[in-house]
Write a structure and sequence with these properties.
nucleotide-binding, 10% strand, 3 domains, three-stranded antiparallel sheet, mainly alpha, Rossmann fold, 574 residues, aminoacyl-trna synthetase
């Protein structure tokens, strides 16, 4: 909804009754829209007074990125909200490429944006690769439409040719600045005669097309997220819609595109809110209904400044490379400014479509919390079916030369043991190499290890070495988890130890660490890693044989002397 309020000459037009405006040929497949108070073409100085739009036809939304760089998380969230709104309403999600910035637009950026959207699962109904009835879907291929509508506005008097030079325009800005006035256009071409215009055309003087803005009144819109927003028209001034080189200006392109693509709802970032004034004036001048507008809040950094590269990763591609899952990114982006009214924070894309409403989008800025995103990724990672998760992590281990193979019993058991400590796929490297490492000396000589060493650890070590050399421990490991449990119970009885006094020294001697995942499962994995030769040489794996050889060589008196001199070490935990 948009309303123009102005001078008495505009007010007289409010009594125009309800009429039906049939769509022009370019608005295919849309029902006629019923409008109230549509202004007829007016004399140049008496512009439209009131306009309102009602979209009774199908829901059609669009995401219109500029291919001048990577897809920012803010743009991805805008695309997601458009997608969710369209799917929840049974409408169409249109992808339009705004590539009129010829100097900065690249095919590589365009392809990257398309890949990122596809990776997120935001499939578009119309646009590049899919076609549609409202193409072309690249602005650079729609120049004929822009010129056609510019001519319409020129003939109706809403636009005029401006022959001002850059020097003249700069002088106007300087004068306005000195007078502390808005930098509005005050050139003579708004009131030039036809003879003056023809004279400049005959000389070949370059010109732009300027939109004639009413000098009084205001514009008020009802934003679906922000509520009522209004602007005074006297702060705007006549603005350019077509440059002297024939290239249309952004606000004009967007308006013509949205009109000719029958867009019913424009959901975009709040930084575009000021553009709405110019676009509404163009809609009104062309005689078309405005879509509904919904301006989404910005995504902010933890310091509440606008999220930028100085805060770390900001593009979808970067998060993809870091190992984030698309379903986690979608879930997290949806919660930046939206919620379903419950405490639930875990949503699949399908659930988001079911729950999403534009009314629950918050107009306050949303803080991007990378720690929470990582946590959420871990939740989605562990929700992946076991077989698929094993495949993902196994392939990663092989690709990073941690393991020689990507599947098999060892990989399956390792994933199940370590997955609770993995939030990102790349985390699995550290989790596995920590398990395979044996930082025994650092643990024994740390302050945390002092209590364990002083609890007769040398005696436990001697008994453990004897059990290994006799084949008793290996036999138990061959029998799997049940064999390990039976052996531990018997080993504890022989030493008259149980609970922490048994398991802590065993963990230190067998894994080289004070903390870590389940000890029995860890030792079984270490045994299998050595038996089946699945670990790549680069992983730094210390086999059980090598561990027991190290235990046999320990000078416990030397350990007792060293431990009071050393501080805790970061290699203690798995």
């Amino acid at each position: 909804m948009a309303t123009f309020v102005g001078s008495p000459c505009w007010a007289r037009l409010r009594s125009i009754g309800e009429i039906t405006l049939a769509h022009p040929p370019m608005l295919r497949h849309s029902s006629p829209l019923r409008l109230r108070s549509i202004a007829v073409p007016l004399p140049r100085r008496c512009f439209a007074v009131a306009a309102s739009a009602a979209s009774d036809g199908p829901v059609r939304v669009r995401f219109a990125p500029s291919p001048t760089g990577n897809l920012h998380v803010g743009g991805a969230r805008t695309a997601l909200f458009n997608y969710l709104f369209a799917r929840s309403k049974g409408g169409k999600f249109v992808l339009r490429i705004e590539d009129t910035d010829l100097e900065r637009s690249t095919k590589e950026s365009e392809e990257a944006v398309l890949q990122d959207l596809s990776w997120l699962g935001l499939d578009w109904d119309e646009g590049p690769g899919n076609g549609g009835d409202y193409g072309p879907y690249w602005q650079s291929e729609r120049n004929s439409l822009y010129k056609e509508h510019t001519q319409r506005l020129l003939e109706s008097g809403h636009v005029y040719r401006c022959f001002c030079s850059n020097e003249e325009l700069e002088k106007m800005k300087e004068i306005a600045k000195l007078k502390q006035l808005p930098p509005v256009y005050t050139g003579r071409w708004a009131t030039a005669t036809e003879e003056e215009v023809q004279e400049e055309l005959a000389k070949g003087t370059p010109f732009t097309y300027r939109f004639r803005v009413p000098k009084e009144g205001s514009l008020k819109i009802s934003d679906l997220i922000r509520g009522e927003v209004s602007w005074n028209l006297d702060t705007l001034g006549d603005f350019v819609i077509m440059r002297s080189n024939g290239q249309p200006v952004y606000n004009f392109c967007v308006t013509v595109d949205d009109v000719t693509m029958a867009i019913s709802h424009v959901i975009r970032a709040e930084e575009h809110l000021p553009n709405t004034l110019r676009q509404a004036l163009i809609y009104k001048a062309l005689g078309f209904p405005m879509p509904y507008f919904a301006h989404v809040s910005l995504i902010l950094a933890p310091d509440r400044s606008k999220l930028s590269k100085r805060h770390g990763a900001t593009s979808v591609g970067q998060f993809k490379e870091m190992g984030y899952l698309p379903q986690a990114m979608v879930n997290y982006l949806a919660l930046l400014g939206w919620g379903d009214g419950t405490e639930n924070e875990f949503f699949t894309l399908e659930q988001l479509v079911e729950k999403f409403t534009i009314e629950r989008v918050n107009k306050s800025g949303a803080i991007f919390d990378s720690t929470k995103l990582r946590w959420m990724n871990g939740q989605h990672l562990r929700a992946i079916p076991s077989e698929a998760l094993t495949g993902l992590i196994g392939q990663h281990w092989k690709s990073t030369c941690t393991l020689k193979e990507s599947d098999g019993p060892f990989v399956e058991e390792a994933v199940q043991l370590l997955k609770d400590g993995i939030d990102l796929i790349p985390d699995s490297d550290k989790a596995l190499t920590n398990l395979l490492a044996y930082p025994l000396h650092a643990t024994l000589t740390s302050s945390e290890g002092k209590v364990v060493v002083e609890d007769k650890l040398p005696e436990v070590s001697a008994s453990l070495i004897a059990a290994y050399d006799s084949g008793e421990l290996i036999g138990a490991l061959e029998e799997g988890h049940a064999g390990w449990q039976k052996w531990v119970k018997g080993f504890g009885k022989s030493l008259k130890r149980k609970g922490k006094t048994l398991f802590m020294p065993l963990r230190v001697l067998l894994t080289g660490k004070l903390h870590g995942p389940d000890m029995g499962a860890s030792v079984l994995l270490l045994y299998k890693a050595g038996k089946y030769d699945v670990v790549a040489p680069e992983a730094g794996f210390v086999t059980l044989d090598e561990r027991f050889n190290m235990l046999k060589q320990i000078n416990w008196e030397s350990v007792n002397q060293d431990q009071t001199l050393l501080e805790p070490t970061a290699t203690l935990s798995n």
